[in-house]
Amino acid sequence: MIRQRLVRYSVYRNMFLSFVLLTAGIIALVTVVLFALFSWSTAREVGNISESMLKQNSAVSSVIKDEVYNIGNSLLADQQVVSALFDSNNDQLKRYHAMFTLRRMQSTYPYIQSIGLYNGLTDSYMNTTGISHDQERPLLQQIVQKNSSYFNLFPRKVTVPGSSTDRQVLTFVLLPSYYSLMPDQGAILINIDSEYIQSLIGGYKNGAADELFVVNAKGQVLTHSESERFLTDMSEDANIQHILETEQESGYFTDGKHQLVTFVKSPDLDWMFVSVSDYKNLLFNMNLLKWSALGLAILIFALSLGVSLWLTNHAYNPLRHLLDKMLPAGKTKMGNMRLNEFALLDDSYSQLKERLSAMESAASRGQQAELVQMLKGGNPLQYERFKQQFPAKRYSVMVILVDKLSTFRNNRDAETRSFAYASIYKMAEEILGDNEARLAIAEEGMIAGVIKASDGPNPTQPGSAFMELQSRIYEQLGVSVTIGIGSSAHEYDDLCASFEKACTCVQQRFLHGAGQIHFYGLDEDVSTESKGYPYKYETSIIDAIKSQQRFRLNREIEQWLLGIRDCEYHEALFYMNQLVGSLYRQFHAKTLRDHTVSASFSQFIHHIDVYETLEEIGDSLKELAHRLCDEMEEASNTRYKKIVTDIRMFVEKHYMRPDLSLEMVASEVSLSRSYVGKLFKAHCQISFNDYLNEVRLTKARELLISSDMPVQLVSEQVGVYNTTYFYTLFKKHYKMSPAQFRQQENVSTGAVQ
């Protein structure tokens, strides 16, 4: 059974895999942690053991130092050695007796490779193995130059006469003059075999150590388990640098090569004893430990598989019957076929949700439709059923109206609008409470509801719930709403009347602005009597249009709107129609020739009941009035252009008449003299008299050029009988007299010929 469920349902497979992965992870984590702890503990113990052994090795430095001091003191206590050391005559007998003493001392200490005496007074040197003065000269010069302490160490390689290989020695130099009154030209050289020191250290060597060596403070190898590395400079080695830099006298650490490095610094000599060991040599039973840990982990994992199967089989028993019931009919016996039980659950849940949603939606729509029918005039039986479902002593009707509905309808698609209305319905239901209100979407942009009212004739008093509802709708949907609350109702007829009064309340946004809350009873208390139609401002509006005073026009329209603000909604609409009719009668017959303006009147009249606020209708009224101003201005400009054209033609025809004047022209066009003067100058940018003189001077110029007529006769021909005045006008205009002008023109004509 468990095998079939694992094959069929992914939930069982996922659960089993989760158990297995969790168990495997825990086993791996525990195994790795235990192995790491064991490795760390073993390395620590081995490090402590290596450190302890090296501390024993460091005792070699103390032994060697003590032995060197003893040998030096014994030699300085010998009279023959001192005589030869400071003999200024280089007496061979003294040298012979001193050599005998040195060889006897060397035979006493087998680790001494040779002993030498240097006499600085005679610059002579003798050695028990026959090493010559020339061989030791570099060291002797260094001794003479240094001469800083009684005890000095020089690791080096020396060639012994009769031997083909160099010997690795540690030369200890004793300067007797440092602590006594002896001359400072002598020195005792004691050469100790490096291999002997290595043999002493090797006696304490840990069998697991791969390298065991001694270095000085400069990182120079003094002795090494690999003899060929004697005198090697290891100062650049990372491990040696770490040892030199640390202030600890002893310790151990691991490097990047899986090696354990142990060190001990000698307190007597400037030596450092170092051992380097590989982990694989330290943890000799590591492989056995690894295989043992792996075998134990596999055993535990095998047990965990059985536990995971048992948990998988029993953890989902409550779902087993549910999954079997969700299988499609006729497919309960499907063998090992794999199924997606999550898809089955999702399909089953979706089908159930759709059925419940459909049932709930149908019930909700039915309740809303019945509520709207009851408010708009249903029957008393509906009211009785409503009272049983929503009992209260008194009710009041609330209407929520979406502001700027036409704009909202044009900017949103049908689906978005439906979602917005449903959201407003849900928010109102949530804020007002299911026990305090019953709501319904009455029509597009309007939500009606019945709320529990307080006792008394007045409606429910304003509260924070309505303001919170307005605020939340605007924040979440960006939509402003106007709320109207009807009167309090106890009987069915009163409830229908309350709905009508609530609708009347929301209509008050036309006069008082959108986004407010209106209570029918309270609005009646503060209402004032209408002042009637504002005829005075209508006359001012018409005069402003005729005189093209646009700023005054806006001001007069604002005053007219203010005059009807205290009216009822329908009365204000009637007054608005009356004003538009007056404007149409006043301007249509005489001035309106543009069909678009006539269409604007028609559109304004047909949409006057669509405007939601007085401000909106005022803006449209201003737009219409300004279009009338544009039409008036265009008509006036056309008429004025014709008048000016007629005046100019009259002047061109009668310029030779001496009695031609502005009065004569004004009488010809049937206008006043002053009006014609202003009109002509406004359109021609020149006064009438200046224009008349300009025409006469142009004609006179043509006569002067084309004829030999005397100037006086030319002046009379153009209508100026005062020759002196003609001379003045001509010279002012052309900057020369008529005679000069004629002469200049004749000269120009002759030059051309």
TrEMBL record:
Record's keyword terms, sorted: DNA-binding, Membrane, Transmembrane, Transmembrane helix
Pfam families: GGDEF_2, HTH_18
TM ranges: 15-38, 288-311
Domain (HTH araC/xylS-type): residue spans on this chain: 645-744
Protein name: Helix-turn-helix domain-containing protein
